[in-house]
Amino acid sequence: MPELPEIEVLKRSLEPHLVGDTIERAVVRDPRLREPVRPAELARRVTGRRIRALRRRSKYLLIELEGPGAGETLVVHLGMSGRLTLVPAGEPEEPHEHVAFHLRSGRRLRLRDPRRFGMVLALASDKLEQNPHFSGLGIEPLSGEFSGAWLAAAAAGRRGPVKSFLMDARVVVGVGNIYASESLYLAGIHPVRSVARLSAARWDRLAEAVVQVLSQAIAQGGTTLNDFADGEGRSGYFQISLSAYAREGEPCLTCGTPIRRIVQSGRSTFYCPRCQR
DNA sequence: CGTAGACCCTGCGCGC
DNA sequence: TGCGCGCAGGGTCTAC
What we know:
- The protein is an alpha+beta fold.
- The chain has seven helices and ten strands.
- Strands 1-6-7-5 form a four-stranded antiparallel sheet. It has a four-stranded antiparallel sheet with strand order 2-3-4-8, with helices on one face. A two-stranded antiparallel sheet has the order 9-10.
- The protein is globular and about 55 Å long.
- The structure holds a DNA duplex.
């Protein structure tokens, strides 16, 4: 479901409602997620704490809680099928509901995740960077330091197709399967091309394309192919703007050549065989 | 060391 | 209608 833009949209939609509210109870209905939820530890770290701020790192939503010391951070990852929504108290439980946070305002923040690739855990805020999920993460593509030169430097001595490189979170975070195809299409770069064979100018174009695609997707509320929704259940509409992803056989918007689908590292890649070299 | 593939899950749409 | 198959936005581990 979610790549960087979807998590950013989720964060922005929840922020005004959550900041200032207090978590009164963490209810774990089904601990079976990618990493089993630890109910006792979760409750201990979040119960009674006021929500100070929301942040995003990579595809993780970070809910920062006040507390003694540096405070605690509630970490939520949506995996492929996770949905985090704010609902009124008394809303009936839905299938695949794993965790619900009861808030002082009476609302509930609940996580549903049919495929169970998601994650919920709480960490001491000052230990976040040392956590294995975060310690190896690469650069944020919407940060000022991200550039073609940065990508080129990260690619030095590496091999393999540029699409896999772009989706490697140790290099740059947040670019998943949809936005990798879209960025390469916009940059006019063939997804199979080796990172060892990209000029500096093309690295620049790629970095610009990534920034443009992600920014536009955020502005349009994310991509809803099946089930993405923000914290209040609203769908995104960037799917209307997709140029390559999920358009196999349909004409390229630039040259009319049918969009092609191939499989790289077990994931679908969509590209225009004429415009992308 | 880096890269490719398998794997973790459920649900949906499609063709037969 | 019902069934089997392929496919799905992610991350991690293993084998080469």
